[in-house]
Design goal:
Number of strands of chain A: 5
Low-confidence stretches of chain B: none
CATH architecture of chain A: 2-Layer Sandwich
Helix content of chain B: 25-40%
Radius of gyration of chain A: 13 Å
CATH superfamily of chain B: Histidine kinase-like ATPase, C-terminal domain
CATH class of chain B: Alpha Beta
Number of domains of chain B: 1
Bound molecules: adenosine-5'-diphosphate
CATH topology of chain B: Heat Shock Protein 90
CATH architecture of chain B: 2-Layer Sandwich
Order of helices and strands of chain A: EEHEHEHHEH
Strand order of the largest sheet of chain A: 1-2-3-4-5
Oligomer: heterotetramer
Largest interface: A-B, 29 and 34 residues
Strand order of the largest sheet of chain B: 1-2-3-5-4
CATH class of chain A: Alpha Beta
Structural class of chain A: alpha/beta
Mean pLDDT of chain B: 94
Shape of chain B: globular
Chain lengths: ~120, ~140, ~140, ~120
């Protein structure tokens, strides 16, 4: 009850959607990390993380995005972050994630973005 | 003139399982202090980061025989948070704050917590006495409207 | 053989506002002890009743300068709850447990709390030293399945 | 957030529905008590307390039912308790409320019951 969390991975053709629900903190982030690792290990690099039902995120969760983005982009893919509510957006913005990651309104928007060039500073 | 203080104290075993309770604790105190939802979210996150660091770094991972102590003291002007541990300790000034881009290049998954705490709170101050007591003092002031 | 205990402690100002946090606190400890939802609901209610009594009777209503102290200790066999106050105290044995029908006839709105605590918990035991410390010890055992 | 509670009073012709939502504890019970007092002061004694959205009740809330039932029945009315979920039913049952109060599945059931004789031991 005090810490509901779930992560769900759905393969949708040429990309994969990882759905986060509930609280992503130092307790639950390892499950999120494992989900991304599994997807990457399977050679999938067009990743959409759907945060619509995520109610909280701490740096442990933010670190997961940080740790995989280079590898995924090196493979020509990206991690699109979508569905952030204003409340959970705050830590992303404080840390400057908005200038280095691609935020999308929803999964549909993220899919569209995969046909556009990746935002990246070299 | 005497200021009426409200004091809250929480001690829990050192385990990330307890971060949720720690957040509830801070939220409760912050609500009574009169912070708005956005300020409460900041307080919640800052204290979560601080306690996650105690659990992971000061005590080196889950160790339910160790204690994380969180105090919240509120008066008319501010909510003060004091977090104590008896773990390893560290030198906060020696921690290099790397840029996000740098962290990404190095494929780091950590190194964001202290930076968050500093931008979320009005004051962040460590007093480290390894082997004795490590204390972190943070303050968030109520903005009078 | 040593039993590993997990200890939780919460101190809050004496105000009914804090009952919600007290319930979260107990729920957290009880979940880690492995109680099921129905047992957790019982623990939550028993501790709420005990703390409401401290706030209302021991301290005579809201008084945020006074402290309600709740300890939860869990091991493999049980969750023990210890509630402390430094308030008025009372003689638990002198409290007449009236039938519900009687209470209704007298249009009473109270007198149910201690009865609930006793049927929700496996042990309920007071140690009253007025002016010093009043303590209530309650135990709920884990039923092995 | 930690203690959401609301009470709503709706006059529906010859009876009144008091809707409880969230946590009824020593902190919020006074608001419930006030709502019942207001209704009784207005001379309404056919009272339905709808507990469908009530998530928790402690003895402070149970005491409100106890304190008014005699007066209301003396006036030929009743307090019907409806919509109790299994979780919140527990304290009512432990204290024997089920033998002295009329529990109904929902508001419709409670309305129907008002046309039947009141359960009462004299
Ligand atoms: N309470 C603490 N006890 C010991 N070391 C700490 C503590 N807090 C922070 N540190 C050290 O400071 C570093 C940076 O912390 P932080 O910015 O929160 O990032 P992260 O925890 O993700 O590494 C940690 O890796 C750790 O070495
Ligand atoms: N912690 C306490 N300190 C002082 N008096 C208490 C305490 N707990 C209970 N009492 C006394 O016992 C009585 C019965 O308590 P209880 O059964 O919980 O019903 P209620 O609180 O509704 O009166 C109270 O009215 C009060 O006089």
């Amino acid at each position: 009850m005090p810490n509901p969390f779930s992560v769900q991975t759905v393969n949708e053709g040429d990309h994969v959607v990882i759905r986060l629900e509930g609280f992503v903190d130092a307790h639950t982030a390892p499950q999120f990390e494992q989900a991304v690792q599994t997807v990457v290990d399977q050679g999938q690099h067009r990743i959409i993380v759907d945060c619509e039902k995520m109610t909280y995120i701490s740096s442990a969760g933010l670190g997961v995005f940080m740790g995989f983005i280079e590898e995924v982009r090196d493979e020509g893919g990206d991690i699109k972050i979508c569905g952030l509510s204003p409340k959970v957006k705050q830590p992303f913005e404080i840390l400057g994630f908005d200038s280095l990651f691609d935020f999308c309104a929803d999964v549909a928007g993220a899919k569209e973005r995969f046909s556009q060039p990746v935002k990246r500073e070299e | 003139m005497e200021r009426i203080e409200r004091k809250f104290l929480l001690k829990v075993p050192s385990s990330t399982e307890n971060l949720a309770l720690i957040r509830e604790f801070v939220t409760s105190a912050a609500q009574q202090a009169g912070f708005d939802a956005s300020e409460i979210a900041k307080l919640e996150l800052a204290v979560d980061e601080a306690c996650a660091n105690v659990i992971e770094h000061a005590y080196g991972g889950q160790d339910v025989t160790k204690e994380v102590v969180v105090r919240a003291t509120l008066d008319d002007e501010a909510l003060s948070i004091d977090i104590e541990d008896t773990g390893r300790g560290f030198d906060p000034d020696s921690i290099k704050q790397e840029e996000l881009e740098e962290l990404i290049n190095k494929r780091k998954t950590g190194g964001l917590g202290m930076r968050l705490m500093k931008s979320l709170m009005d004051e962040v101050h460590y007093e480290i006495e390894p082997g004795k007591k490590n204390a972190l003092h943070m303050v968030k002031r109520l903005r009078k409207t």
